[in-house]
Design the sequence.
């Protein structure tokens, strides 16, 4: 009987030793995992700070906060009305005009939001605002409304892709995006995703005439050849990249 008790005590001792050893090892493992997680978090914060500082130095114009202060109320008002993050609109204006009120492009687009004369005439009727070309606040209101209109061309896209496609449409006109979507469908890609459209936009040049013969009955894109695809791709990619950094700042 005593021999059995001794065996039991020995087995119990071995079990407790193993259990305590496992607990200590788990504690070491957990502590190491927590330390690694903390290090990664600190590294992310350092990288984020570096990214923001580089953004301020290379992308934002001098006295950026002073430049936008007068326009923030109108940006916030119309961004909220049409369902946009105001920070996205700020970055779009930065890309369009760098907040130069009298900006004018070589093709005639004017103002902070670089609105074309024909587009301004349409918006003037729809919004009942007069001075899109000369009044910066009217120009902002018109530009946000125009971006909102582009969103309606892509009802089958999710929110993220819809915004990107709307930005591309704002820059190039919706016809170019429709043509790229046609090619995407032909290539069995999702036409409702920006990545598909981005891939297909360069294929709207004459170089791809054989592809055009297969996609369109007349053998040419419905809205003609598109030579400005790089500008449109960079436009969307830059605004989204700026926006993702700017959200960390405000």
Sequence:
């Amino acid at each position: 009987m005593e021999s059995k008790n001794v065996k039991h005590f020995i087995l119990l001792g071995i079990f407790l030793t193993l259990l305590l050893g496992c607990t200590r090892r788990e504690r070491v493992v957990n502590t190491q995992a927590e330390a690694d997680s903390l290090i990664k978090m600190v590294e992310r914060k350092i990288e984020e700070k570096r990214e923001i500082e580089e953004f301020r130095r290379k992308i934002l114009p001098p006295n950026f906060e002073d430049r936008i202060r007068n326009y923030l109320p109108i940006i916030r008002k119309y961004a909220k009305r049409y369902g946009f993050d105001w920070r996205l609109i700020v970055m779009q204006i930065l890309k369009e005009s760098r907040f130069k009120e009298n900006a004018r492009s070589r093709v005639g687009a004017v103002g902070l939001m670089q609105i074309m004369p024909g587009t301004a005439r349409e918006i003037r009727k729809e919004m009942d605002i007069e001075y899109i070309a000369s009044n910066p606040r009217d120009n902002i209101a018109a530009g946000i409304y125009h971006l909102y209109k582009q969103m309606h061309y892509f009802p089958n896209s999710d929110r993220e892709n819809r915004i990107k496609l709307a930005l591309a449409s704002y820059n190039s006109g919706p016809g170019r995006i429709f043509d790229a979507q046609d090619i995407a469908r032909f290539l069995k890609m999702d036409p409702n995703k920006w990545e598909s459209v981005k891939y297909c936009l360069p294929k709207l040049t004459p170089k791809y005439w054989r592809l055009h013969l297969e996609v369109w009955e007349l053998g040419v894109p419905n809205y003609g050849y598109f030579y400005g695809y790089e500008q449109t791709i960079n436009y969307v990619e830059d605004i989204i990249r700026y926006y993702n950094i700017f959200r960390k700042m405000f």
Observations:
- Residues 20 and 235 are 61 Å apart (CA to CA).
- The chain has a mean pLDDT of 90.
- The domain at 66-151 is CATH 1.10.530.10 (Lysozyme).
- The two ends are 77 Å apart (CA to CA).
